[in-house]
C-alpha cells in the first residue's frame, strides 16, 4: 500500500508544476499551431515542422517531448463558370480560401508518465479589415496514456498496479479551441485545451479519478520596425490551468531582414530563455536554451529545444502580407 501511495504521489506531481500535464515549449512564437488550432493555415502557406525538447538534461526522468506538425490553407485553386442576371459569363472561385487544416503527432514523457498521440485541427479565417485577419479553430486530440512500469519494482506479485489500466495503457480523447487575431504588426491568440477534462481511474476503488485539468493560453506580440531590415518584437505568453497558478513568459526578439532572429525571455516560474534562429530559402532553424534559477539547475545541463521547419508555396499563396514564420 505504501508503494502504491508513493506511485500515486509521483503520478499526481505533474499537476503541481505547470507544463507537466501538457508539453512545454520555449519557441512557441515560431510554431504557434502547437498551442492554438486557429493558427492552422493562417499565413496561406503549407508548413511542416519538427520540434524536439529535452528538459533538465542529465536528470533522470526529466520531461522529453517530440512533435511533428503539418498545416496548410485551402486556397483558390480552381474556378467555375457562373451566369449572372445580366447573362454575362463570370468566373467565381470554387473555394474562398478561408479554411485551414492541420495536424501533428507527438510523444511526451515525464518521469513515469508517457503520452503518445495526435491532434487534427480545422480553422476558419476571415478578414476584419484589409490587413487584419480573425481566425477560429477546433481540434480533436487522441493519445495513448500509460505508466512506464519498467521503472517500478514490485515485491508483491498481487500488487494492484501490476494489472492497472494505466500500466497497460489507455486511449484518451479530448477537444481544444482557439481564436487568433493577426495583423502585419501584431498578433494575439487565445486557446483552451483538454476541454472535456478526460479522467482515469487510478488503482482500486479507494482512489478517486485523476482528471486532466483544462489548460488556457494567451499570447501576443508586436513588431517595432527600425529602418527597412530591423524589427524588435516584444512578446508574452500567459499559461494557466484550473488547478495551478498562472505562469507568464515575457521577452523580446531581435529580427534582422526576416532571415535571422535572437531573443531573451523570462519565465515567472524561475527561468531565463535564450533563443536564436535563421532562415535559408524555405527552411527555418531554431534553437532555445532554458536556464532555470531553481535548485535542480545544479545537477542538470539546462533545457534544450530544437525546431526545424519547411514552408512551401509561391507568391500566389501570399495573403496580402506574409507572417514571417
What secondary-structure arrangement, pairings included, does this model have?
Elements lengths: L1 H11 L33 E9 L9 E11 L4 E5 L5 E5 L5 E12 L2 E15 L5 E15 L17 H4 L1 E13 L3 E8 L5 E3 L7 E3 L3 E8 L1 E3 L3 E12 L5 E10 L3 E8 L3 E10 L2 E10 L10 E10 L13
Antiparallel strand pairs: 1-2, 1-19, 2-5, 3-4, 5-6, 6-7, 7-8, 8-9, 9-12, 10-11, 12-14, 13-14, 14-15, 15-16, 16-17, 17-18, 18-19
Gap from first CA to last CA: 51 Å
Mean pLDDT figure: 77
Helix content: under 10%
Q: What is the general shape?
A: globular
List the keywords:
14-stranded antiparallel beta barrel; 325 residues; mainly beta; Porin; two-stranded antiparallel ribbon
Characterize the structure shown:
The protein is mostly beta strands and 325 residues long. The protein has a single domain, classed as monomeric porin ompg (Porin). It is 5% helix and 52% strand. It is built from two helices and 19 strands. The strands form three sheets. A 14-stranded antiparallel barrel has the order 1-2-5-6-7-8-9-12-14-15-16-17-18-19. The protein has a two-stranded antiparallel sheet with strand order 3-4. The termini are far apart. The N terminus and C terminus are likely disordered.
